[in-house]
Amino acid sequence: MTNAAKHSGATVVDVHVATRDGRLHVGIRDDGRGGAAPCRGSGLVGLTDRVEALGGQLRLHSPPGAGTTIRLTLPLTQQAPSEHTD
């Protein structure tokens, strides 16, 4: 939401949240200028890293001039930390 307000020039942001098959599904779409790309050093790299660290997946679609859509899924069950034995 912050990126959409700060960088995209969007006037509308839609957010959809649902749970299905033991996963949280989030979709965020804006009508901004698009062209968002993790390779430009944006906060998208950090967001992707955090989602993946939790066992989730993030997908980005942001063609120039056509807004940005981010879809992410996260598992709803927490995995127990692995135990180390000596």
Topology:
Layout: H1 2-8, E1 13-20, E2 23-30, H2 44-53, E3 57-61, E4 68-75
The count of DSSP E runs of length 2 or more, i.e. the number of strands, is 4
Beta fraction of the residues?
25-35%
In sequence order, what are the helices and strands, one letter per element? Answer: HEEHEE
Largest sheet features: 4 strands, antiparallel
Estimate the global geometry from the Cα principal axes: globular
What is the helix fraction of residues, given as a range? Answer: 10-25%
Mean of residue pLDDT values: 84
How far apart lie the N and C ends? 46 Å
Cα Rg: 15 Å
Major beta sheet, strand line-up: 1-2-4-3
How many helices does DSSP assign? 2
* Secondary structural class: alpha+beta
Low-confidence spans: none
